[in-house]
Amino acid sequence: MSFELYADSLFTSPYALSVFVALTEKGLPFSLKTVDLGSGEQKQAAFADRALTARVPALVEGEGHEQFVLTESSAITEYLDESFPPPEYIALYPQERRQRALARQIQAWVRSDLVPVRVERDTETVFFKKPCAPLSETAQAAAAKLVHVAERFVQGPQHLFGDWSIADTDLAIMLSRLVRNGDEVPAKLREYVDFQWQRPSVQAWLARHQPG
């Protein structure tokens, strides 16, 4: 068994982070490869012929004719959870079916909605503290929606569904776009983000932004 994870060369993709965390939590051995999105490397044949959507993250499993390549982060994390299930491996999703559905709902939502927040608070402002302007009126509305929904799910400073799930990482990273830039966020959500950022698998990703 061998895996390769292709991430962006700046390590700012929240979706590559999600898969990195999933592999790390599962304890699966993998090598990390990077793709320079700024230069358009993802569109070149060497990558695009394997990762057909020409996006990161991309997970490569196996070698030669048996090689399997998958893109789209939530598809990858679901595949990993089905391929390496508990109790031998940590669960990435809640075991109860409705909670599992809600976790998948959160994943889909933070990837498909809240575009103004994702644009005006891109992850370079989170990981590199890139300066940003006050939120526009449209982004303020999106941020209010994010806070409203998150408050319905976050009941305490720890996990959404009792035990940790990959949805915790995804929601916390989305909320961190506001928290790490000083935007107004209820204390309960700030505490939740801080708690999730301390998880060793997330810290292992953040360590890649440290000098040296």
From TrEMBL:
Name the record gives this protein: Glutathione transferase
InterPro entries registered for this protein in UniProt: Glutathione-S-Trfase_C_sf, Glutathione_S-Trfase, Glutathione_S-Trfase_N, GST_4_C, Thioredoxin-like_sf
SUPFAM superfamilies cross-referenced by the UniProt entry: GST C-terminal domain-like (SSF47616), Thioredoxin-like (SSF52833)
Residues covered by the GST N-terminal domain: 3-88
Entry keyword Transferase: yes
Molecular function, one GO term: glutathione transferase activity
A Pfam short name: GST_N_2
Enzyme type, top EC level: transferase
EC number: 2.5.1.18
Keyword tags: Transferase
Species of origin: Duganella margarita
